[in-house]
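Translate sequence into structure tokens.
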Amino acid sequence: MLASLANAWKVPELRGKLIFTAVMIVIYRIGAAIPAPGIDVAALQNLINQGSAGVLGFLNLFSGGALSKFAIFALGIMPYITASIILQLLTMAFPALKELAREGEAGQQKITQYTRYLTVVLALAQSVGYTVLFRQQGAIPDLGPLKLYEIVITLTAGTTLLMFIGELISQRGIGNGISLLIFASIVSSLIPGIVKFRTLDIVTIVIFLAIGALVIAAIVLVQEGQRRIPIQYAKRQIGRRMTTGGSTYLPLSINMAGVIPVIFASSVLMILPTVAQLFPNESIQSLANGWLRPSGPLFMVLETIFIIGFTYFYTAVQFDPIERANDLKKYGGFIPGIRPGKPTAVYLDRVLTRLTLPGALFLAAIAVLPQILISALNIPFYFGGTSILIVVGVALQTMKQMESQLLMRHYEGFLK
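Result follows.
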């Protein structure tokens, strides 16, 4: 591993990407520590700590602690993720957007532009919501309209800048920028959480660490697992040259969607309790802090359903059996025992559907079961299965990208 890191540092292009990614993450963490103007940080941190297992604690985790300071980046990258979900759903529902998505790079750029506009709108609405909520709770003093407007604009601009940083990392750095920002947020909250372990007995700590190691091993096993569909290519005449037939395979991952369904499900489920926090009604507040809290029963049931649904949805977006079958037929490839064309598409769809089910159930189990364990053992901070899935998944994806860069230059990769 150390030798691979040394090799990566020797490649000028890869070194530049690593440095650029690190600088962008440092800028993000600096912005997460600068509070918005006019905020009583001590009162706000008290409010967040009191509900550390509730929705505010969960949102604070995904913002890397920025919410507890009401910092410039307090909203995190969640408005952008929510906007992406909405645009993807609209693309499936509206023919005009679907045609736009099929136009290639120009169409994708247009959809990306719509996502940016929607991100700003959602960030503005969320900024107003948080400002109203924390003003009701006494964390924001009774300021004038201009000062409140300044807070709202600061938070909205912070999310817009964060969206820009994420896109820059994707273009000029290593890995998916948005995923890396979430990764940095969760990891930055890990060290303060570990300090709180001092309040637990040694037996609970050992049990928690052992289960955590098993969960990480299972995530790596499933994320790397795949079914290889054999592909045979017939001999073809191309101009004056006769190509030789050969055999290869089509890899279908058990979890083709990666950690995206978990991030999507968390973003969608945070909408209901966040909105519920804005209402002064006691019954709504008890619902938000009870059944709809991240460790509540209703939240976990809904999270399971959303993760399974988003896994199938995102897999369908990534892999089109009809398109893949047509490509195989075009280049003279076929699956042994399956006729080219529509039968191949039906076969691939059936295999992918059966393969996605255990992957979706695994994602849901890993996201939900550690939450039950945390409640049972009374762990003093929120770092559940969702966080572990995102951290391990993003780390694996980033290492794969670095490995491909190294292999292009004849170096050994990270993954042996």
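Note: The two ends are 9 Å apart (CA to CA).
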